[in-house]
Structure formats: C-alpha cells, structure tokens
Write a structure and sequence with these properties.
293 residues; alpha+beta; Ribosomal Protein S5, domain 2; two-stranded antiparallel ribbon; hydrolase activity
Length: 293
C-alpha cells in the first residue's frame, strides 16, 4: 500500500514526574528530512527520536514538536544557606548597634544578599525520561502513518482511474492510426489527380512507395506498446509495500516521452487532440506522485 508524504500525528505519555506531548507533521520532500524541536535539556535524545521516526517514514520533511510538563517537584531544588544567612544577620546587627541605625532587619533585606539560596539541579533518570518520551513519540508516529496510509489509498485510486482513462484514449489512437495512412493515400491520390487533371494515369507502384514511406515515418506502434507497458508497470507499482515515489516519477517521465513522440509523428488533428488530453492527465498524475513516499 502506498503512503502519502502528507500527514499529522499527536501522542501523549506521562509518568509520576512528567508529561510529554508530541506532535508530528510531514509534507512532501525529495529526501528524508527530520527536524526536532524540543526543550534544550532533552537534546541528547534527538538522534533516538529521529531513529524511531526513520523506521516508519522513508521520505518527506518531518517536523517534530515536543513539549514537557513537570508533574513532580521539578528538575531543580532550592534550599536555604542557613550558615550564610546567619552571618549576614550578625553583620547587620553589628551595623545597627554600632552606628545607631533604627531600621529593622527584614526577610526582604536578607534575601537580596548573594548565595542566600542554594539552587541544585535534581538528578534525573535518563532511561526513565526516554521511556516516557518514546511512548509519546510512538503514539504520534502511529497516528501519522494511519493518516499517510489513508491519504495514499486515495491517491492510488485517483492514479489508477487516470491510468485507465489514458489506456482508453490509447486504444482509440491505436484504432485510428491505420486510418491515417489510408487517408494520406487517398489525399495524395486526389492531389495528384487535381494537379494532372487526370491527363496521366497514376503510377500505383510509385504511389504505394510514397505511402509506405509515410507509414514508416508516422508509425507510432512502438510508442503505443511502450506506453501500455508503462501504464501496467505504474499500476503494478501502486501495490508494492516499499516506497515507490521516485519510481513512479520516472515512469511518468517515460510516459511523457512516448506521448510526445506520438504527437510529433502524427499529422491527424484528432490524434493530436487525444495526445493533448493524455498529456493533461499525465500532468495531473505527476502532481499526485509528488506527494507519494
């Protein structure tokens, strides 16, 4: 089943200390480009996150947004430096008594002195953090892949329908092509008769040679066969499990090449109009293929 490169996924996970929310969105891109935006203190997990996503997403630009909410005491611990506060207090008392200062010694005054508070980073279990974050990432990836698969299924249906339509047009062109040679022969005969005014009998062998040369130059049988083959390969590729976006893009290029050759060889207005119609459908398929992984 083919996958679209467009999708969105969201996942949440929490333990006793924290809650992670992960949002992933993907759009079409030539390569596999993953960008992770998350709190700086979690950057050491970036490669693990990318590896999880790469297991499922083979192509496309993927943007990952991670937010963290602390549910416990947080990652820092603040305590009072009692010894230092006591020294500050004693010094202030000396100032008050020695210089006859009547102002009170308040908490706000003491709290402004440097190093009154001790701030310590709480040691965290990195494996515990990763297990919680991993759960949220996997949930977001699962939702993303479901959306990409659903979108891919719709793209496949549209492409198959357009391929069938092109196939029907090619059958019409294939049926019409032999008539073009006969029409050329009749027109050539009429033109010669008009120019010579039936004064000289037409050399049938010479006329046949001219018609044969025209038929050879205007033959589109090979192009039609190759175009049928490309249509078959394209429809078959849509059932493959691995990423096929680049393969489909190549097949569309080859189909365009064949239909352009048919157009350049054809002098019949009806066939030329069919060629224009096929090229229009191929362009629509090409636009759809740009979104396939």
């Amino acid at each position: 089943m083919i996958k679209s490169m467009t999708g969105f996924g969201r996942g949440e996970a929490q333990d006793a200390e924290r809650q992670f929310t992960v949002e992933i969105k993907s759009v079409n891109h030539r390569y596999n480009d993953i960008v992770v935006r998350m709190p700086k203190r979690l950057t050491y997990l970036e490669e693990k996150i990318k590896d999880l996503i790469k297991n499922e997403v083979k192509r496309g630009r993927v943007e990952v947004y991670i937010s963290l909410e602390n549910l416990g005491e947080g990652d820092t611990k603040i305590s009072l430096n009692r010894s230092l506060v006591n020294q500050y207090y004693q010094c202030l008392q000396e100032i008050k008594e020695g210089f006859d200062v009547k102002d009170d010694i308040s908490v706000s005054v003491l709290s402004k002195f440097p190093d009154v508070f001790i701030i310590e980073s709480k040691e965290e279990d990195e494996d515990e953090i990763w297990q919680c974050l991993k759960s949220a990432v996997l949930k977001a990836v699962e939702m993303l892949m479901k959306m990409r698969l659903a979108e891919g299924e719709k793209l496949a249906e549209d492409i198959v329908g357009r391929c069938d339509y092109i196939g029907n047009i090619m059958k019409t062109i294939e049926k019409k092509n032999p008539e073009v040679v006969q029409e050329y022969k009749n027109k050539l005969r009429d033109r010669i008769n008009e120019m010579l005014e039936d004064a000289i009998q037409i050399d049938e062998s010479r006329l046949s040679i001219e018609v044969a040369i025209f038929a050879d130059k205007s033959s589109i049988a090979e192009e039609i066969v190759r175009l049928y083959s490309h249509i078959g390969q394209l429809k078959k590729s849509l059932k493959e499990q691995q990423p096929i976006g680049r393969k489909l893009d190549f097949l569309i290029q080859e189909m365009n090449r064949e239909i352009n050759t048919i157009g350049s060889k054809s002098s019949d207005l009806e066939i030329v109009n069919y060629v224009v119609e096929v090229k229009s459908e191929l362009e629509k398929i090409r636009e759809q293929v740009q979104n396939i992984e």
